[in-house]
Amino acid sequence: MSRSVSELADLIFAYYPKMRKMYRNLVSIKDIPISITQLTCLHILNQSSQLSMSELAADLCMSNQQLTKVIDVLTDMDMVERVCDEHNRRKFYARLAPKGTELLNSLKNEIDRKLGYVLSKKSSDEIDKLYDSIAYVMSYFGYREE
To answer: What is the Cα–Cα distance from 120 to 103, expressed in whole angstroms?
Structure first.
C-alpha cells in the first residue's frame, strides 16, 4: 500500500502536538522560566561546541533578530555564553554554559526516570521496536546516532 505525501503531512501534523505534550509531561520546566524555543536552543548548542548566531538561527528556523532576544534571555540566566570571533569583532558565537549543561542533564535524568516508570510494564521487544521506530523517523531529519 502506498501512502501519499498529503497523508504523511496529515500524520506529522497530528503527531506534533502529541509529541510536544509528551515531552512537556516528561520534563518539569514549570519551576524554570524557560520557553520551549529557549530549551530547543540549549539542545542544539549541546550538540556542538559553539555555533555562530547565523547557524543557530538557521537551526531554529528564525531570524537573527529573533534569536538575539532568545540568546539575551539565556545569557541573563547564565545558560549560554556569547563568544566574540577573534578574527572578526562583529561576529559572535553562542555556546552552552555550565548552568545550561546542568539543566539539560537534570532534564535528561528526569526523562530517564519517568520513561522508566511508563515503560516498566512493556517487554524489551516492545521497547526496542519503539526505539527503532523513533530512530528511523529521526534519520529523515538529519539525526545520526553517535
So the answer is: 25
Chain segment 14-55, per-residue pLDDT in tens: 888 888 777 777 777 667 778 888 999 999 999 988 999 999
Burial tier of 5 (Cβ tally within 10 Å: 0-12, 13-18, 19+): exposed
Looking at this protein, which amino acid is placed at residue 61?
A: C
81 beta partners: 95
Residues with Cβ within 8 Å of 146's Cβ and at least 6 positions away in sequence, in order, are none
Of 89, 21, 95, the closest CA to residue 52 belongs to 95
Domains contained in the chain, CATH given: 35-109 (1.10.10.10)
pLDDT value of position 78: 96
Residue 83 bridge partners (DSSP)? 93
Could you tell me the pTM of the whole model? 0.79
Alpha-helix residue ranges (DSSP H) falling in the chain: 5-26, 36-46, 53-60, 64-76, 98-118, 124-139
CB 44 within 8 A of CB 51: yes
Rounded to 5 degrees, what are φ and ψ at 121?
-95, 5
Instruction: Judge whether 80 and 135 are in contact, CB under 8 Å.
Output: no
